[in-house]
Each structure stands twice: as C-alpha cells, then as structure tokens.
Amino acid sequence: MIRLHHVAQSRSFRTMWLLEEMGSDYEIRAWSFFDGSMRSPEFLAMSPAGRVPALEIDGRRLFESGAIAQYLCETRPQAGLAPMPGEAERAQFLEWLHFAETIGNLLANLTQHHIVLRDPAMRSETVMRLEARRLEKCLGAIEAAVAGREYLLSRGFSAADIAVAYGMIIGQRFVRLEKFPAVMAYFGRLRARDAYRAAEAKDGEAQIYKQDFYPPPQT
Ligand SMILES: N[C@@H](CCC(=O)N[C@@H](CS)C(=O)NCC(=O)O)C(=O)O
C-alpha cells in the first residue's frame, strides 16, 4: 500500500505526479493547512516539521519531496525516471533535484508575504521584490539548461523535471514566465504529459493560491 499525504497546490503534487508517471497504485490522504490537523500527533509522526509531502510506502514513512523522489526512483528503477549511481548524468540529476528546493524556498517566502500573512504590517515589500528577482534568476538557469533540449537531462524526462516544474507551476503566480521562452516551451511539454494531467485532476480544491498572478509591489 502506498499512501500519499497531500495538500492541493503544494509540493506533494511532485510526489503525486511521480507516482502517476510510475503507474503506481496509491491512495491520497488530503490534509489542510488551515484546520490545525497538520500539527496533530498523527501527522507529526509522519512528517516531524508538519509538512507535506509525506509518503507511506514499503512499510516506511518518508518526508521531504526530494528524498521521496530519490527513494521512488531507486526502488523502482524499471520506471527509468532517474540515472542510477554510476550512470551518466547522475550528478546533474542530483543537482536539479535539489536545486528544486532552492526554488521551493523562494516560493514559500513569496507565498508567506503575498498570501499567508494577513496583517499588512507583517508583510515585507522588500522580501516580495527580492524573492521575485531571485526566482527570476533560478528561471534563468532553467532557461539556459532547456534551450535546445527537451528536458533537463539529455537522456530524457526524469524525476528532476518533476521537481523543478513546481518552480513554474507556482512560480508563474509571482513572475511572468513570458520572459523565459525556453522555460515556457519546456513547461508546455511537461504539462502535456498524461501523468501530469492525471495528477492535476487529483490535486484537489485550491487552498492557497486564489489569484493567477500576485504582482510584485512597485518601487
Ligand atoms: N523541503 C520540503 C518542504 C516541504 C514544505 O515546506 N511543504 C509545505 C507545502 S509546499 C508545507 O507543508 N508547509 C506547511 C507549513 O509550513 O506548516 C519538501 O520538499 O518536501
């Protein structure tokens, strides 16, 4: 039995999409950020910082989306979604898989300051502008990597694409992707995948992002 602990529009989408790519049978346990349930002993036993994703699999409990992706790819190598240790492009695979969390942290800060902090006195316009610029830097790195190639690795689609794509899925709410034509084309290819569409259909009702775009404050 595989059970994914999930919140709509969150990083657990990465795990859901990867499970779909693998053709895995899994169930979804949906949680909410807003009802305190992710601070319950039951949830904290799965994810000690109270974060999603968490995954119950092979008799274990795993948290951290990057670790989950690595575990899934290494225990299910037949899916062909990662170069294994010793294979070509393994180092690049790890770089992108973990770079995805450089982006993830920027998205978390932008989300805090644009959406989660309700009292305007707690929000920082400086953080909003700075983190949007830092997100653009990251998108620029992806732009350079996918210009002239279909996916991040020359061997083809991998779990690293899934991890990094979260930077576009949520990033497009804070930064105009039109500035990055190769990223736009790459994101289009990713969204056209059957597994992406299957995961999107299961993601659940929007909890966090209700606007398509949250503009950075003007200076
Ligand atoms: N590095 C972790 C980050 C997990 C994370 O922060 N998830 C967010 C949702 S995208 C969360 O659960 N936040 C709840 C909270 O901060 O209390 C991962 O990649 O799994």
Shape: globular
Number of helices: 8
CATH hierarchy class name of the largest domain:
Mainly Alpha
Q: Element order, helices and strands?
A: EHEHEEHHHHHH
**Largest beta-sheet characterization:** 4 strands, mixed
How is the largest sheet built, in terms of strand order?
2-1-3-4
What labels would you give this structure?
219 residues, alpha+beta, Glutaredoxin, Glutathione S-transferase Yfyf (Class Pi), Chain A, domain 2, 2 domains, four-stranded mixed β-sheet, globular, binds glutathione
Topology:
Blueprint: E1 3-6, H1 12-22, E2 27-30, H2 41-44, E3 54-57, E4 60-63, H3 65-75, H4 90-116, H5 125-146, H6 159-169, H7 181-191, H8 194-202
Parallel strand pairs: 1-2
Antiparallel strand pairs: 1-3, 3-4
Helix pairs in contact: 1-3, 1-6, 1-8, 4-5, 4-6, 5-7
The structure holds glutathione (GSH).
What do you see in this structure?
- This protein is α+β, with helices and mostly antiparallel strands.
- It has two domains: 3-79, Glutaredoxin (3-Layer(aba) Sandwich); 90-193, Glutathione S-transferase Yfyf (Class Pi), Chain A, domain 2.
- 48% of the residues lie in helices and 7% in strands.
- It has helices at residues 12-22, 41-44, 65-75, 90-116, 125-146, 159-169, 181-191, 194-202, and strands spanning 3-6, 27-30, 54-57, 60-63.
- Strand 3 and strand 4 form a beta hairpin.
- Helix 5 crosses helix 7.
- The protein is globular, with a radius of gyration of 17 Å.
- The mean pLDDT is 97.
- The structure holds glutathione.
- Glutathione binds next to helix 3 and helix 4.
